[in-house]
Design a protein that fits this description.
The protein is mainly β. Helix content is 12%, strand content 46%. The radius of gyration is 34 Å and the shape is globular. Residues 1-39, 322-328, 341-355, 378-384, 392-398 and 400-404 have low confidence and may be disordered.
Length: 404
């Protein structure tokens, strides 16, 4: 599990960062927990999973800057990932290490702004639970997240351990097909009154070929409805998505349509268009296993005089090649290939005496006097196998005698 923690200063930034990290870790924590408990696979999922399929199709892999990332795994199981990003003439980079041992995983990340983030995740420390603890330097902020999975419900609680602690709670009930959930955030202040920082509710319907959801967020100020449909469930090459959102305080609407198409097993094309005329498109190709190159662009169809934006992302994950040793023929094998030749059969006999096929003819069990194979003579006694066979000559007298 790879955690990307963006460090910010300030009370509001800390609360937003903790909430964002909790949502990022929810999917990976639930996936690792589901692998160890069959009941989690039958659950409704986390509240952050409501509308995730449509959101990923509309936002995932769209990038308008330059990014390079390299990931490799050592022989001890440590995954090291380094990335560099250039945006607006400013370059940033980070290096992270991830190690998983059984049900425990540890992630550490350093970036060019001298920030350090560490995350420890314990899965199934108690049945059907996942616990995540994170610590950030140099602002000395930390958070604790606890997730509980049941066949008909999920619970998540996150606490930001700072001078003004923030508590986020979310719950979901239902089944993998139908789920209803809600979340709320509470901030406790010492010098002023405490307050609710956020509350939201949502409903989702998931089927193998489609997913629909409705979310009421931003303290009831935003309504978001999305629908994602797969046209070929068997191959999963074509999908379409639609999202409508409305902000009640400003009466502004946003409408986005998009889709994806898998040209083949290695190339994917995606595009999306909103009601403001902004068109985004990307092309992603897997040139080697688990290594991708992504080219994306964005331009305004209502303002073609503006310069289009482009983005390029290269993700490399080298695969370790197994060393295959090729056996070399020994000197004895070479000698046998050039000298052990049957005069009668006329084929080269290669191999040691104990591995060569018998040259005697087959006889049924009722034959009272079958021919017997001759013993191989030993030329030199020593530590190396030097037993040499007699020339392989086929028997000419099946009645009981063998011609030598």
């Amino acid at each position: 599990m790879k955690m990307q923690l963006k460090l910010k200063s300030g009370r509001d930034n800390t609360r937003a960062k903790m909430k964002k990290n909790r949502r990022r870790s929810s999917s990976s924590s639930s996936s690792s927990t589901c692998s160890s408990s069959s009941s989690m696979n039958r659950g409704p999922g986390l509240f952050s999973d409501i509308g995730r399929k449509a959101k990923d199709l509309l936002s995932k892999d769209y990038l308008l800057n330059q990014r390079l990332s390299v990931s490799t795994t050592t022989a001890t199981g440590v995954t090291i990932t380094s990335s560099a990003t250039k945006k607006g003439g400013v370059s940033t980079g980070d290096v992270g290490a991830s190690y998983k041992f059984g049900e425990t995983s540890l992630d550490v990340k350093f970036n060019t702004k001298s920030n350090i983030a560490a995350t420890l995740t314990l899965t199934n420390s108690t049945p059907s639970t996942s616990t995540t603890a994170s610590f950030n330097l140099p602002d000395y902020t930390s958070s604790m997240t606890l997730q509980y999975f049941h066949s008909h419900a999920t619970l998540t609680s996150a606490v930001a351990l700072n001078p003004n602690p923030t508590i986020d709670l979310s719950a979901t009930i239902g089944t993998p097909t139908f789920a209803i959930g809600a979340e709320a955030g509470y901030e406790r202040r010492k010098r002023s009154s405490s307050k609710l920082t956020n509350y939201a509710a949502g409903i989702s319907v998931n089927k193998p070929n489609y997913s629909a959801s409705i979310l009421l967020g931003d303290k009831g100020d935003t309504i978001n409805a999305s629908y994602m449909h797969r046209f070929d469930l068997a191959k999963k090459t074509t999908a379409a998505v639609m999202e409508i959102s409305r902000r009640l305080s400003t009466s502004k609407n946003t409408f986005i349509v998009g889709g994806s198409y898998a040209v083949d097993g290695l190339t994917v094309v995606k595009a999306k268009l909103d009601n403001h005329g902004k068109l985004d498109a990307l092309l992603q190709h897997e040139f080697i296993p688990k290594s991708f190159v992504t080219l994306s662009t964005q331009f305004h169809t209502k303002a073609l005089h503006k310069t289009p934006k482009f983005g390029l992302a290269l993700a490399l994950k080298p695969q370790s090649k197994s060393r295959i040793s090729t056996a070399k023929p020994s000197s004895l094998t070479n000698w046998c290939a050039s000298n052990c030749c049957s005069a009668y059969i006329g084929h080269v006999a290669i191999g040691t005496p104990y591995q060569r096929l018998s040259s005697m003819e087959f006889h049924p069990q009722w034959d009272m006097n079958p021919p017997t194979a001759t013993w191989a003579n030993t030329a030199v006694c020593g530590t190396h196998p030097t037993t040499l066979p007699f020339p392989a000559v086929r028997s000419r007298k099946p009645s009981g005698r063998t011609s030598l």
